[in-house]
Amino acid sequence: MAVIPIRVVPDPVLREKSRRVSNIDKSILKLIDDMIETVRAVPGRAGLAAPQIGVLLRVLVIQIPEEEALALINPEIVKKRGERVVMEGCLSIPGYQGKIKRANSVTVKGLSPQGKPVRIKATELLSQALEHEIDHLNGILYVDHLESGDDLYQIDAGDEEESNVSKL
Q: What residues are annotated to the active site?
């Protein structure tokens, strides 16, 4: 396993749509392992999509503290319910957080690393992380969801978990 450098804006790979994985082989399993290692190396982060490390494949990992890592291949949101306002940051947009709208809950389908179909009903942080990472697979960044520039906040390095951020 290896920690892979994170791509940051304005890297054009972050705006491209990822391709579906047609065959889960050793290279995909290694990619997943490397992605889990990479997200674990950054304190306070919940997920990572393959484009964030320069790989345009529909693969994501979620690592919520105190829980087992979740890896999904070819994930799709099949249902969203409700709406809430959240503060969101991104490894690919360091130094900023934004106030955006996300669903209260999502249902996502995809494949496990073993190639088995999975369906996840998620709420709270898992729901938000799944929406965020699936957006990455579609070339969408959280800043695309901002209602205005006033909803983007600059933060001090290391304070990304703080909710009281300084406004730009």
A: 133
